Amino acid sequence: MAKTEFYTVSEENYLKAIFKIAGKDRHRVSTNDLANELSTKASSVTDMLQKLSEKKVIKYEKYKGVSLTPKGNKIAAGVVRKHRLWEVFLVDKLQFKWDEIHDLAEQLEHIDSEKLTDRLEEFLGFPTNDPHGDPIPDKEGNLHHHRDYTIADLDINEEAVIVGVKDHTADFLQYLDGVKLILGAKVKVKKIYGYDRSLMALVGKTEIMISERVAKNLFVSKR
Questions:
Q1: What's the rounded Cα separation, in Å, for the pair 208 and 199?
Q2: What's 1-145's CATH class?
Q3: For the CA atoms of 220, 82, 51, 56, what is the dihedral angle to 10 degrees?
Q4: Is the dihedral of CA 197, 203, 209, 213 positive or negative?
Q5: Rounded distance, CA 201 to CA 187, Å?
Q6: Are 92 and 102 in contact, with CB atoms under 8 Å apart?
């Protein structure tokens, strides 16, 4: 029987960060981008990338950035899958709020049991999105990304439904709860202000002012 290769929590976090930054276009990721994402020094990133390169889970060239190999992509997608399934469990079954679950899921995502992950997915009814609207990868690592529409892309009188958030920080999610900019909310742009690109929008039956920063952090599906 082939020996299962072991990856540390730190190694999995690096692969997940590359997966996240690369996005659906799978562009190469710079060491500076990784350092910013993981709140660490560029020199530490370089050391880890050399280790991951030796394990053949990334392709790394100094000064040219890094990309995941098919093997690395599957591992990273698996960690993301576990994270997002645990977030669904925490919200749907344990009644946590969506701003409380990220750090807990960060710990649970490193449990190394494919059987547990498969049973969790089945128990939850095979969800396709987590509580933040992010798509959940399948067992093979395939991921269906959001289309690149945000509230900031809408024109006057255009309608859409909020389907996801880019910013998962607790402060932002609590703000969204307060103004009812939550998943499933219907949004119709009434006015766009040229000065700062803020906009007046009808959310349900209530008019609210939405800053450009907020608008760019909310994915929508056009109606």
A1: 8
A2: mainly alpha
A3: -80
A4: negative
A5: 6
A6: no
Q: In whole angstroms, give the CA distance from residue 50 to residue 67.
A: 13
pLDDT in tens, 44-78: 899 999 999 999 999 998 888 899 999 999 999 99
Contact 138, 128 (CB under 8 A): no
The encoded tokens of residue 73 equal 């992509």
Instruction: Note the pLDDT tens digit of each residue in 23-40.
Output: 877 889 999 999 999 999
Fold for 151-222, please state it.
SH3 type barrels. (2.30.30)
In angstroms, the CA 12 to CA 206 distance is 43
How does pLDDT run across 99-139, given as a tens digit for each residue?
Answer: 999 999 999 999 999 999 999 999 999 999 999 999 999 98
